[in-house]
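Q: Here's a chain of 296 amino acids. Please give me its 3D structure as tokens.
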Amino acid sequence: MISKKVIWVVLGFFILAVAACTTTVPTVDTDTFNTLVAQNVQLTQLAGTLTAVSNQVVEQSTTAAVEAALPTATATIMPPTLTPTLNGVWVSFNTNANCRFGPGTSYYLIKTFNTGDQAQVVGQSTDGQYLYVKYIDTSAHYCWVPLNLVTAVNGDVSSVAKITPYPTNTPTITPTSAASISLSFNGISNCGGNYYVRVLVTNTGYLTWKSIRIKVVDNDTGDKMIETSDLFTSYEGCAVDQQQSDLTEGEPGMVSNYSVPFPYDLDNESLTITVTVYSKDGQAGESVSATITVKP
């Protein structure tokens, strides 16, 4: 009996010992586990969002830096070029051209056009060789130019009316002398502050004149200028206007004291102009003189 009790006691201790050596499996709380999983998912999403925002900031900063480094293009708005409308018949000058009182070189010079200048055509000579043109200075003026020195830029030149010009102002004379001239004052011009007269000399006799002497006296100051030449030359501004080697019977020629000018403005000064012409070069041979007094 005692032996059985001892056996049961020993068996009991053995079972307790075995139970003590067995690994304990912990019990997992399901709610706590699910909460941890959800938080881990949220942290993962937050990390992705922060990464995307960081990349966007870097990209925007890089774009801004590149744009700042690039030059700024500024648009310049140019006003439209307006082309004037030409009404009527217009021509452009192919070269410098003299415009005269009538259709021919025997008429007084009124104006010199420069290459590229334009003028309106209002008529033509009966032979069609000259055009009667209009130009604007301080007001409207009219004169005649050779057809072969211009090019039409608007309209038909041949369509303008034919005009009978004023008669030439070269006087018709009954010669009583073998030699004579007439003078016509044609204004004052200047070059760089030096002033000179322009005088039209017309050969009204029967000798050919080869050289000339021009004397201009300022009656208000007593100053006088004398120029001599073997050429009949006139100037407009600082440029030669026309030049010829002699004056034949009935031929006019514009002359100036350009080489010996006055150093002051001659406007409103009383001037006496004496022109002497000679039948030979060097102011030699037969000569005649003519004098006019003017106040520009």
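Q: Can you summarize the key feature?
A: The mean pLDDT is 79.
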